[in-house]
Design goal:
Helix content is 30%, strand content 30%. It is an alpha/beta fold. β9 and β10 form a beta hairpin. α1 packs parallel to α5, α1 crosses α8 and α2 crosses α8. The protein starts with a strand and ends with a helix. The relative contact order is 0.20. Its EC number is 1.4.3.1. InterPro entries: D-amino_acid_oxidase_CS (IPR006181), DAO (IPR023209), FAD-dep_OxRdtase (IPR006076). Its cofactor is FAD.
């Protein structure tokens, strides 16, 4: 097939990953990455970007495991290459701790991370409010470096980048043969999906270079993630909350909760405060459909609704989206023959 025009809408970690996968695997496609915001202004840019996952209720577990493992393996290769500092990808070791023993003591992703084990009683002594924990090495992917690095990789594969706002798929129907929707919360407007909702997250970046290990409370609301240039501390999980301003009440709460887990944080210096809206959904939507637009039916591949797990699942769901684009191409070939 000669020069099929593909557009990927959305330039967060899901959109850019998907655009790279398509452009590199399908050189006969001309791929455009189109978004109203690019790094450093995306939700992904503020993400702590540490890799572990929660279980989605209605997606086969094998598929979720594959999403996680594909992303982990892709980022591990980056972390172990010369590109690591430029791409903002590094190994990170630490603890996930629980006030009560969770129903599933061993999470589904335990086999994919490095050296997963249960914490010893000795290790748990420093966290007197917590009864149980996981120790493991995972990856941290800092999107403020990773997204520009990936965008560069996309351009090298022949991809085009365009910055503009679109409000409906109809605006794209005459210019492209396949539309790939990675618009996150934007899918409420773009495809009328009210199942996507915001979960507000506030984090602080701190200077505390002596901290080397991550600590995450199993409830997902309190965490300390040392990175390449600063420590990300958080956080909040406020459903259906659209506020993008920093809430100083949240700032105080974050510092108080994190200092309980890591008392030396009281000597850290707050460098910046950030708020983002996670594009949450009961399950991420990774599927294709034919959409009737004025004059023709256009194949649309959806890849959005990852919530707070975008970085963790981005490469895995991008590979799935690539597979769906391949299916669209096969169906278009069949149509052409008929």
């Amino acid at each position: 097939m000669k020069n099929v025009r593909v557009v990927v809408v959305g330039a967060g970690v899901i959109g850019v990953s998907t655009a790279v996968c398509i452009a590199e695997a399908l050189p006969f496609c001309s791929v455009t990455l189109l978004a109203d915001k690019f790094s450093p202004d995306t939700t992904s840019d503020g993400a702590a970007g540490i890799l572990f996952a929660a279980k989605f209720p209605d997606i086969p577990l094998e598929r979720q495991k594959r999403w996680f493992k594909d992303t982990f393996d892709h980022l591990l290769a980056v972390a172990q290459s010369q590109h690591s500092p430029e791409a903002g990808v590094m190994l990170s070791s630490g603890w996930q701790i629980f006030k009560e023993v969770p129903a599933e003591r061993k999470p589904f992703w335990a086999e994919s991370v490095i050296g997963f084990r249960f914490m010893t009683e000795e290790e748990l002594k420093r966290f007197p409010d917590h009864k149980f924990g996981h120790a493991f090495t995972t990856l941290k992917c800092e999107c403020s470096s990773y997204l520009p690095w990936l965008e560069n990789r996309f351009r090298k594969a022949g991809g085009q980048v365009e910055q503009r706002t679109i409000n409906s798929l109809q605006e794209l129907s005459n210019s492209y043969d396949i539309i790939v929707n990675c618009s996150g919360l934007g899918s409420r407007t773009l495809v009328g999906d009210n199942q996507v909702y915001p979960v507000r997250g506030q984090v602080l970046k701190m200077e505390a270079p002596w901290l080397q290990h991550f600590i995450r409370d199993g409830d997902g609301k309190t965490y300390i993630y040392p990175g390449m240039h600063s420590v990300t501390v958080g956080g909040t999980r406020q459903e259906d909350d659209w506020r993008l301003d920093v809430d100083e009440g949240d700032t105080d709460s974050i510092l108080k909760r994190c200092s309980r887990l890591e008392p030396s944080l009281s000597h850290g210096k707050v460098l910046s405060k950030w708020v983002g809206l996670r594009p949450s959904r009961r399950n991420p939507r990774v599927e294709k459909e034919l959409v009737q637009l004025p004059g023709r039916r256009v194949p649309v591949v959806h890849n959005y609704g990852h919530g707070g797990w975008g970085v963790t699942l981005a490469w895995g769901t991008a590979l799935d989206a690539l597979g769906l684009v391949r299916q669209c191409l096969q169906e278009m070939q069949l149509q052409a023959k008929l």
